[in-house]
Fold VNX1 protein.
Amino acid sequence: MATESEPGRRRRCCTQDALDVPKPPEPHPDGDALRRGSLCDHRCAAINNAQGDLGDLGYHQHRPRGHAAVSSPPCCQQHSEEVCESCVVKTTLTAENVVEANKLSNNYKFGFKKWKSHVTARPWEDRSEIVKELYSDLNVIRGHGGSTVTFGNVLYLLLFGWWLSLLYVLVAALMFVTVVGAPYGRLCWDLAGYFLWPFGKVIQKTEAPKSRRALGACEAAAEVSGTGESSALLGGPVPRRWRPRCWDDEGYWQRAGTVAWLCLGYPMLALAHGLVCVAAWLLVFLIPVAKLSARTAARVLLLPPERVHVRRLRMTEVPLDAEVILCCYRAVNPYYYKYAVDGINVFAVNLLPLVLVTLVLGYVDSHNLLTSSPVKFTLALLSIMPLSYYIGMAIASISAQSNFAVGAVVNATFGSITELTFYITALIKGSREGNRCYAEIVKSALTGTLVGCVLFVPGLCMVIGGIRHQEQRFNSRSAGVSSALLFLSVGGVFAPTLFSKVYGKLVCGECHNVTQNPLGHYLCHNCHFDLMENNGTLYYSHVQPLVYTVSLLLPAAYLIGLFFTLKTHSHIYDIHISDCHMPGHHHSAVVHWSRWRALVILLLSTLCMSACADLATEHISPILTNSTISQYFIGVTVLAMVPELPEIVNGIQFALQNNLSLSIEIGNCIAVQVCMLQIPILVLFTIFYPTNFTLVFSDLHVYASMFSVVLMNYIFMDGKCDYFQGTVLVMVYFILLAVYFFAPSPSGC
């Protein structure tokens, strides 16, 4: 969907009674909500036999190489030649609303964060049946779907079923002992069998008999309240506070048996179901078990026992008259990785308490009485992952709801905040302690991010995407712009290093004469190029001015790249927002996070990120001093790639939907920002806060980075790839990791 204010957009109209042509292949059910392009787009794509991008971006149509343009069919009555020409050479973005269209368009803009998840609520009717099942209550009776003996159901029996059933048996015995709680004892006995194996069984709520006068008053109250017995939210029951009073059982809460039940039986069972709910929710794929336990504790166990019935469904079961409270068929659903709460992925929701635990342990247990430094470092590093996700979603939400200028400022300001926060805190700690090892760790992390985003991220996306798609194509022109900037940035970043190799004096810490001959061979250790000879004349007069010059030129080149790709030559991305929509599919935008809410979350996440980075640098010292692994390896792996995990997940999702262009751009943009923004900012920071950070890298960093950039450009020349080329990139990355693993620690560590 495009807005009318966008300049240069051609409005197109399509007729329903156009020429009947073959339909494009059915897309995967994961992204059906964003594939409703116009009928003209679909038919022109089928006629021209274009490569369909069935991901978030509708269909990508490219002109086949070496073939003449196909004559336009009469699918569009007006301007058919222009329209079908646009179908061939344009990339059509289709979305439910303007906000989603802006987000999709921002994904193709250089320098903007690429974001896969929705920033608006998707209409319920547009979701696939798989996704609808994730959000539905466990009260729907389906047709017979085969045996209930599955791996997931057996796993439930081993993890929860046996001890829940035993607990219900014990509570049933306790209720029978109280005599007045005997009805609840019978209920617990029935539920013991249910929770041992709840699959294929149903829990019903039967209606209590009422007098005709009371029934009439109840119906009148229901009509006045404007609601029925079922809820509008996912078909669930109406909350108790919305029900007329006549629906409640008279005197139920004053019974002696009810008091005994609420004092003796219910608390134990509610606690058990609460533990099951939390454990199943954290395991994500067992969320149906969490729903089962939550609904039991909140509703089933609070009903009068005579109104709860447990039945086993049969293949010839007729529709049940009584209300169905619980009906579960499987305990594990592998599609729950798609589940979201208010637009936030379930994994990010589950990791959020980890941030609180990290901050409490880090700042309360300052003397390591509860946990050790390695544990705190690990927790701080893991806490960076959900915070990176929240920062990314906040940036995408603000950019999608704002104009271009605001989006560009937000992306430039907060796009690299995750990495910069860690680097700056590490340099400050190293400066305070006079330890040069922290500066070397930062250089290793910068190099690891560069190499990982150039080799590992696109390589992994090629491998995973190549499993589903035999050959994937991408926009080689847009990738060429990023590659050119990457060449320029790598050359600029390592220019001071090459300068020091040429003009610096080689100094060795210790040398031994191997042949016992003064003119023979010498074996030297800890050799490096000394830049401080003659009171640092070489460094302060030549190397440092070169560093400052490069740090000014690289951001200038980045701005020129932004102006080139976003203004003067934006056509190289071939992006077009479709104006035609299928009938009945126009929806207003219901954003998950408003601009102000996203801004607050962005600031809070940045603040928590700073605290976690401070804790990580505070407790990394024992790992650096006591670990037998090279500090190079720690920097290029853990410190470099853990903050980029949300970006890696986005790239994989784009690749699975045959949109490799964005997968490649994710890695390239991060690598370019490392060289053109992050490193100049660190150099600028050292001017105002002197640290041990100098823009002179080791030979290993230089060779690994340059080789990675050259190999990446060679792979991306033809604009198409497969899983074999992705395997080559991943294997080269692991070879470089092996080199770093066996390399000796840097000088100063």
DSSP finds 24 helices and eleven strands in the chain. The first helix runs from residue 39 to 47. The chain has two domains: 127-206+255-338, 339-507+536-581+594-742.
